[in-house]
Structure formats: C-alpha cells, structure tokens
C-alpha cells in the first residue's frame, strides 16, 4: 500500500508472482505478456482492488493526441456496411482539424472487448467515440468507470443520461415510413426489425407500431435481423411464408431491405405493385432494384456531431454537452 492506503503496482506484481515490468505490461494491455501472466495479474488486480488510471493522469499533464473509435461489431460487418465507412470518414475529417489521430478498435463481446478495455485503460487515447452500441457491451458504464471522455454515435441503450451522444429521431422516422405505407392503402404491413439490444432497433420498431396504432390497426407481423443484407432476406422470407397477404413492408435498414427485395423477387412478388417497401438509412438505397424509398439516417452528420461533442469534453472535462437529436427525412423512390 502507498501512503494513502491504495494498492500499488509493486503489490500487484508480488501477488501475481511476476516482475513489475510484466505487471505493468499486463495492466496496460500489452500483447507482450503470456496468457498465464495476464490471468495472474488480472486476479491480483481484482483481489487487491488496484485501479490504474493513467488516462486521467495523462489528461492532467499531457495528451496522446489520439482518439479511439470503438465499434462492437464483427470485422466483416464494419468493412462491408456503408454506415461505418461514412462514420469513420466523418470522424477522421473532424479529428484532422485538430491534428488528432483516429485509432480504430473493434470490440466484440468477450476476449476482444476485454482487450479493448485494457487498451483504453492504459491511457493510449485521450477519448473515445462509440459506434453501434449494444446493451450487452455496457460501454457507457465501462468508459464512465475509466473516467475517459466519450461520445456515442447513436443513443446508448444503457446510460444515455450519463454520456454525450448524437442520433436521429428513429421513432419519428419509423412513423414516417409506416405512415407512407398506410397512405398507399397497405393493409397487411410487416416489419423487418433491427436487433432488439440496440436503441435503433427498439426505436424503429416502436415508431412502426405507433403508426399502426394511430391508424387503428393491429401490430402486424414482425421479424428481426441484425442490420445485415443476409438477415433481411431470411426475415422477409419468413414473413412471406407466414403472411402470404403481405402488401407492405417497413425494413429497419437499407442493407436488410436489399435482402428483403431479393426474397420478394424470389417469391414472385412485384415491388411496389404487390408489396410496397420502405427502408431506413439512405445508404445506397438509390442503387437498389427498384430504387428504395427510405428514411435518411445522416451517418456522416451524426459522426461529425458526436466527434465535436467529444472535443468539447476534451476542452472542458467538466462539461457534459447536451445530446443531439436530428429530425428524420423521408426520401420517396420507386419501391413505395
């Protein structure tokens, strides 16, 4: 213990049976540590209640001039979904204005998430921007515990009142989508929803159901995907098999809608003559066959605003900027 009674790194090393240098590398997330040593140090940290917060000390004395973009998604999705491309481009553009470096961290739950948190705990970045937050990753809580300034692209499903974030009004946007299908006279409107462990998935489902309720209609058929094209195709095929009278479909992302259009074509259903379709995001929707009516999710704008919220935190660590919620816009094309 030091003079204040706080466990020291030397004690962690002794408890773990490793050198101080090895303990330091393990605590700071270095890959130059054996699995056995890393586990021993992690156990010693838990037993002693050791807390390393070099990020806070760094902010008080110097900056790393780096900002992490944390994406709790699989690698293949990050590099194939245009949402992430636009997001990273916008973040990097804003950081470049301040001569700050972007560090991309892909953090799936489990070992990858633990590795990411060790890296963030090690004081390698000045702050973090989180994209595609899920309930299970608890990133708002983890980053809050680290004392690391952060901002979220998209409203966090947990801890939204404690962190800065920028989002579009997904409830209102989903209402616009379903109201358009109702205006067309659709009577059996299905919904391919996003993941229920994400705020966007929950909010877009809530807006869809609210529009149906306001029209005096039952909830209607719902199936869920994971915002990927393949999941949209599978979910739409299930809906068509269960509800052959389906004449309207609101899909919670354009990628899933692309898959849904493929399922409709395979079933011999014409769009929009037999089934009208509305997507969400406006990311490549004009290149679908037929071109997709959709709700705009301004990924680049949201990323820019979230990045500026983080920079405001870095300039004034005591400030908690108000969240940004942008109104939705519906773009009408052939599919509806």
TrEMBL record:
<keyword id="KW-0238">DNA-binding</keyword>
<dbReference type="Pfam" id="PF13377">
    <property type="entry name" value="Peripla_BP_3"/>
</dbReference>
<dbReference type="InterPro" id="IPR046335">
    <property type="entry name" value="LacI/GalR-like_sensor"/>
</dbReference>
<keyword id="KW-0804">Transcription</keyword>
<dbReference type="InterPro" id="IPR000843">
    <property type="entry name" value="HTH_LacI"/>
</dbReference>
<keyword id="KW-0805">Transcription regulation</keyword>
<dbReference type="GO" id="GO:0003677">
    <property type="term" value="F:DNA binding"/>
</dbReference>
<dbReference type="InterPro" id="IPR010982">
    <property type="entry name" value="Lambda_DNA-bd_dom_sf"/>
</dbReference>
<protein>
    <submittedName>
        <fullName>LacI family DNA-binding transcriptional regulator</fullName>
    </submittedName>
</protein>
<dbReference type="InterPro" id="IPR028082">
    <property type="entry name" value="Peripla_BP_I"/>
</dbReference>
<dbReference type="Pfam" id="PF00356">
    <property type="entry name" value="LacI"/>
</dbReference>
<feature type="domain" description="HTH lacI-type">
    <location>
        <begin position="7"/>
        <end position="61"/>
    </location>
</feature>
